[in-house]
Design goal:
alpha+beta; Hypothetical Protein Aq_1857, Chain: A; six-stranded mixed sheet; 2 helices; 9 strands; 39% strand; globular
């Protein structure tokens, strides 16, 4: 018997959505980038709650990427991250603590105060 534990990603077929505010901000960010550059969203290990969201600019699409398109912008999410993000909404908020992309993830059982890391 071993003392190791694994965390299984949530398995849901609920769609991942992108708000109009997020699409508008992505378009503004990509305005100065080369043609074909898109936003990539990923779930990575780390952060104070176990997992964290990563946002990068990318120009490479793989066959297993989920492709979200809204208002002329494209967001890519790798297949492993999709399993953690089912039913999530990708938004952009500008409030007193700052402006940032925010993922409203119904699979998260806990998150840190700044909202960039979560646990399942």
């Amino acid at each position: 018997m071993t003392d190791t534990a694994t965390i299984e990603p949530a398995t849901t077929d609920a769609p991942i959505t992108l708000t109009d505010r997020a699409a508008k901000q992505i378009a503004a960010i990509l305005k100065g980038e080369e043609e074909g550059t898109v936003l990539r969203v990923a779930v990575q290990g780390g952060g104070c709650s176990g997992f964290q969201y990563g946002f990068t600019l990318d120009d490479t699409r793989t066959d297993d990427d989920l492709v979200l398109e809204k208002n002329g912008v494209t967001v890519l999410i790798d297949s492993i991250s999709v399993s953690y993000l089912g039913g999530s909404e990708i938004d952009y908020v500008d409030d007193l603590i700052g402006a940032a992309f925010k993922i409203n993830n119904p699979n998260a059982t806990a998150s840190c105060g700044c909202g960039t890391s979560f646990s399942i």
